[in-house]
Input
Amino acid sequence: MVQDFLTVIVGGEAGHGVKKSGNVISILMNELGRYVFEMDDYQSLIRGGHNFSVVSSSTSPVYSHYMSADIIVCLDKRSVDIHKDRLKDGGTLVYNADTVTLDSGTGLPMKTWIKDIKGIPLMAGTIGVAAVSALCGVEFSFLERIFKANYPRGLEANVELARMVYERMKDDEGKFELATAETPPGHLLAGNEAIALGAAAAGLDVYIAYPMTPASTVLHYLAALSKKLGIAVVHPETEIAVVNMALGSAYAGARTAVGSSGGGFALMHEAFSLAGMSETPLMVILASRPGPSTGVPTYTGQGDLDFALNVGHGEFPRIVLSPSGTNQAFEKAAELLNLVWKFQVPGILLTEKHLGESWMTTIIDPESVKVTKPILYDGPLEQYGRYEKTDSGISPMLYPPAKGTVVKASSYEHDQKGITTEEAGKIEEMQEKRYRKEKAIVEEMRDLLTITTHGEGSTSLVTYGSTTLSALEAVKNVDDVKVVQVIYLRPFPDWALWEALSDSEVIVAELSVSGQFENLLRSEGFDVSAHIRQYDGRAFDPPELAARVREAIQ
Amino acid sequence: MNLETYAENTWCKGCGNFGLLNSFKDAVSELVEEGALRAENMVISSGIGCHGKTVDYLNLNSFYSLHGRAISCVSGMKIANPNLTVVAFQGDGDAFGEGIAHVVFSAKRNIDATLLVHDNSVYGLTTGQFTPTSEKGFKGKSTPRGSIEEPMNPLALVLASGGTFVARGFVGKRKHLVGLFKKALLHKGFSFVNVLQPCVTFNNTYSRYRESTYILEDEGHDATDFQAAWGKARETERIPIGLLYQVERPTFNDLLLEGLVPAEPRAPPLSAISEIISER
Ligand code: SF4
Output
């Protein structure tokens, strides 16, 4: 019987090549014309422990992963203990027969085989890929092609191992007959990659960051591509240096972004306000982790919403938005970079590990991205003032060198030329000028996609960020519920949300213990009839979320 | 050339900041006249403290930055546009307290920037607390019984961090200071000038510096000799001023950018992005 939806779990120790194995299975599924969502669960350690990858795929879009699987590959004993109960009826458990003996499932002597061919422990993951491939009835030559493209090192040994797997699993070959399509539906990208490329498409010139999971992969990705994209990528001594360098870079006219997680962004706090005061465009990628403090670095959570909305001392406008999947991440990263330059404000792209480090089928067109030029000064140079008063609050920019005038930016309260002032009237004038931009941003937002609505129903499941992905999967199995995603969080697009929520009950789902998003909705005047919260560092499992939505409706 | 602005100067009469500011103006004017520097290409930045007002008093491109961060701010400018000549003014509390990591790393990476430190060994604007360079025993508002810490040695710090231009000046020796500033501005790489700059209100060290400073250039110091520079940096009885050390080393911005000028307008790399995506 042809099967459309399939979930595979591969589990093992750090060092077993678990993530690589998940990646290659994703690529295989993509090549078979299937949409993919891959979630990698790993701990903050380099060896041992327990890692696993979940790949859910189908011929129609898959928005998030499922925790019950058709195929579970266990590269060590611990994986068997952790995952065996997640096997669906009719599913297959593949295990390492050298470390565990089971009554059911398919045991493969992984260690022995690797030893026989003088391989390395990392190759356990390859055996996993081959087992999945065999179970799905993938022709060996097709698998070989995938291997060729993905294991440049040790290709022969890996192909040899795959052959052993196919041989041993002959009886189960093709047990899962998968629905396929002619061509891959899109390309596989992780959220952080999509964010990086989106910003690049909108003309990112400089990226500066200090490593902090789950934002680090933006740094790694852009560093690897810096030549190709013509982007200067810098990793300085501290997050404080990061953000102050970024402000200098933007002042000099380079479109600049920084990225971090909560703790690192906390160090950027002071200069975030400097961006507000000096009206320097600054794009921040804030990939939150379950906190507080060091929290749980490699897991997912949405506890930084209030932080993102309120970060900074003093008052100044800023933009906070949060995309859900890779397609939107690409688009909104580009949009945010354009907006911070148009309005000369700091902006935060708030995200989580569930988007940033998950691989998704992505369909984007870089050519669709337009660069909005900032408002540049073209009047008589001797009259130029960096902080000239305007109706919109936006003062035309100039970058040094600007022969005939000077460009003076300041952290101190200043007059229209950028010279320090402590005069009451001038302080008031500047506060008002900066604040007027808030209104201008809202006007601009009316033409932008600030919320999304999926499906129809008398109940709205309201979410933001990557929790939207779990919600989109969950409501596939609940009647009369639509998903409403809030993309812009500050300024808050209340006008769009009122329209989307008219006449519907509101259930809020978020990864927070205190319900920050729910509180935000309430403070904007929206009634919330029920909430679903999770704060164990994991994304919602769609069936579990569906059950909680059904419960909430009753 | 006119480097004046309309900002009212609020430094105390006799403050050492004046000597520093005027020496800098002279250095810039002379270099511009000599054709070695273009004023519009210059960007200055300062931190917070009495020295911070320098940006208001100079008719040059500027970014009034935060406490300790001016060197990071101008480093970012240099990365965005390597054609700029960038100068950071910082106080001693600012540079060696709050911002010490940035000084150390700017020297380590040899970013092509100039850092001029207004070293008066006291916090002036916050009304007289001890700083990282205050003498042991210094009685300030936060150390009423006298500082119990050893003072920091800025020159040794920057030398040890890999600085390629390390100098000390004294505002009481104006002509000498102008010469140092000119050399620092022309040096390709990280230039550091620690300027002894008495605070007449909270720590008047004029007479001490007048008595104990001497000029290195007068004594045949070899500025290419690291060991000699290291020795000079650690002298405390007599205080050497002048250029302690200067070497050439590739700059961070040159190595990083390899000819790229990020701030220059260009079309986004859309085809490269399409290619990157299609490879996946
Ligand atoms: S307090 Fe000291 S450093 Fe500040 S302006 Fe007065 S004399 Fe100069």
About this structure: Residues 424-445 of chain A form the longest helix (22 residues). Residues B 11-12, 15, 17, 50, 120, 124-125, 199-202 surround iron/sulfur cluster (CB under 6 Å). The longest strand of chain A covers residues 48-58.
